[in-house]
Specification:
Layout: H1 4-13, E1 17-23, H2 28-43, E2 51-57, H3 63-71, H4 78-85, E3 88-92, H5 98-115, E4 120-126, H6 133-143, E5 151-156, H7 163-174, E6 182-185, H8 192-202, E7 216-224, H9 233-237, H10 240-258, H11 267-279, E8 289-294, E9 320-326, E10 336-342, E11 349-356, E12 371-377, E13 381-385, E14 401-405, E15 413-417, E16 419-421, H12 422-425, H13 434-444, H14 453-472, E17 478-480, H15 488-496
Parallel strand pairs: 1-2, 1-4, 2-3, 4-5, 5-6, 7-10, 8-17
Antiparallel strand pairs: 7-11, 8-9, 9-10, 11-12, 12-13, 13-16, 14-15
């Protein structure tokens, strides 16, 4: 069966050239994410045939040296690497340099003309610091736009530091490009299990009747890392964990979990529902959040955040945060949505945990709450925790069949039992990296997985007041040990709003 993605790319091949211009091509983001994603799409036959890829950065180097640097990050057959690298070129210039962008445009135009296919479509991927977003956008608009095809601008987070700075950045970019030309990336929206959230909700009738405050007691969305800043503390300290993770990745997952069904799967309809949901969330209060900062491990082998030489002395930037949000609508009134994220914790994982009310009748005493868990990473999975009698006979089973998205870059649906560990159920299927899906959607012109301007504003309205309060009052984060669960106050906060931490259950994926 041919996927919708493949159909779209075949149409693109008949309509001209696609030039992907990677600004900041010599930087870590481009080398680690952008170029490997483009290479994976190329290996899977999902790049249009007439695709050319141009790197643009300040560093002076020729095509040969640039290609050798990219090749180190590519995983695959050497033959495929050489074919891909033959499509890659490099131009050096400043991000605010009219001369540099005129040269880039001249090189692009010559290459497009030599390929003899119109229209000439151009995608500009901003793998550059936010401080040069606007200058680069202005230079592109003045000197480097295609006059025969589309022009698309891909922008990486962070999108400002608060509502005011985000609004100013948005206003500046919208004065240069239209909203339909802008693609704001939150790479978590491209992850396989995040893609499955809408399918799980709206393609399975078993969930809709209980997807509300009458059946769900709490929703926890967590992002945990078991490493510290590892020498990148200087960058991290400028933003902190709330801006780096909670305000974007976690709030996007919350919107998909809690929004109402869109009229269609069209990008505008989906994003309309996300915006409605976000606008129903009140700003976080001081008593609804706990912030922390990691110290050394108990054995002293792992350094504290302040031991990182790139971190300013005496910094009170949080490396951990747990916040409780409430959605003020009829479906979710009173249900706590718990967002939890942190570095240097006891494990690495990202997941959505939906906890249901325990039975109100007393036939069985002391039962644990049912939980639906969507494991985003690592070891992608969905499973439903239920209370049952201990087994006494072999070969007996109980399972729930659900509809979910088939793994990969397609949008095809598939039925499976709801004890879905991807490694065991789809072992031979290669799950695409989030960036592969997002870059492919930019080529297709699909905005579904990208953040709209009003969506971004609604998110910042939730977080800006508490961010300003923490910074203006200089509230010190609670210290927690490297490798722990985080500050004890965070566990107390979620317990107070009704979350029950269950004991005695081990997810069996650990035994695979």
């Amino acid at each position: 069966m041919t996927s919708s993605s493949e159909n779209s790319v075949k149409i693109m091949e008949e309509r001209g050239t696609v030039a992907v211009v990677v600004l900041g091509a010599s930087g870590d983001l481009a080398k680690k994410k952008t170029y490997p994603a483009l290479f994976a799409l190329f290996c899977n036959g999902l790049l249009p045939k007439n695709t050319i890829i141009y790197g643009y950065a300040r560093s002076a180097m020729d095509d040969v040296k640039f290609r050798s640097g990219i090749a180190l990050r590519l995983k695959g057959l050497d033959e495929k690497k050489q074919q891909f690298l033959a499509k890659c070129y490099y131009v050096n210039g400043g991000y605010d340099s009219a001369e540099g962008f005129r040269q880039l445009s001249s090189v692009l135009s010559a290459k497009e003309k030599s390929m003899g296919a119109l229209p000439a479509n151009r995608i500009f991927y901003f793998a550059i610091p936010p401080s040069v977003f606007v200058a680069s956008a202005q230079m592109i608009k003045s000197n480097c736009l295609s006059t025969t095809g589309y022009n698309r601008i891909v922008v990486e987070k962070p999108f400002g530091k608060d509502l005011a700075s985000s609004t100013e950045l948005g206003r500046s970019l919208s004065a240069i490009f239209t909203e339909d030309q802008l693609y704001r990336i939150d790479h978590y929206l491209g992850k396989e299990m995040v893609q499955n959230l809408m399918v799980l909700r709206f393609a399975n009738s078993v969930f809709e009747p209980m997807w509300n405050r009458f059946h769900i007691s709490s929703v926890t969305i967590s992002f945990k890392e078991d490493i510290g800043t590892e020498g990148r503390g200087g960058y991290f300290d400028e933003f902190g964990i709330i801006r780096d993770v909670m305000q974007n990745h976690l709030i996007q997952m919350l919107a998909l979990v809690a929004m109402e069904a869109p009229v269609t799967l069209d990008s505008e309809d989906v994003r309309d529902e996300k915006v409605k949901l976000l606008r129903a969330i009140k700003p976080i209060k001081k008593e609804e959040i706990v912030v922390g900062q990691y110290g050394r491990s108990p054995d002293g082998k792992q350094p504290s955040y302040l031991d990182d030489p790139t971190v300013p002395k005496g910094s009170i930037t949080p490396t951990f945060a747990t916040a409780v949000l409430f959605v003020n609508n009829n479906r979710w009134k009173g249900v706590p949505f718990i967002l939890k994220c942190g570095k240097a914790l006891n494990e690495r994982k990202a997941e959505v945990r939906i906890q249901f009310h325990t039975p109100t009748y007393g036939i069985f005493n002391g039962t644990q709450p049912n939980e639906l868990v969507i494991r985003v990473q690592p070891n992608e999975a969905m499973y439903l925790k239920v209370t049952q009698k201990r087994p006494g006979q072999p070969n007996e089973a109980m399972y729930l069949k659900v509809t979910q998205k088939r793994p990969g870059l397609t949008a095809d649906l598939h039925q499976s039992e709801l004890d879905l560990t991807y490694n065991s159920r789809f072992g031979s299927t290669n799950l695409p990296d989030a960036y592969e899906r997002l870059v492919l959607d930019v080529i297709r012109g699909d905005h579904n997985l990208f953040v709209r301007d009003d969506e971004l504003a609604a998110s910042w309205e939730i977080f800006t007041p508490i961010l300003h309060q923490l910074e203006q009052l200089k509230i010190a984060p609670e210290l927690y040990e490297f490798g722990s669960r985080g500050p004890a106050a965070a566990d107390e906060l979620v317990r107070r709003v009704g979350f029950r931490r269950t004991e005695g259950y081990t997810w069996p994926v650990a035994k695979l």
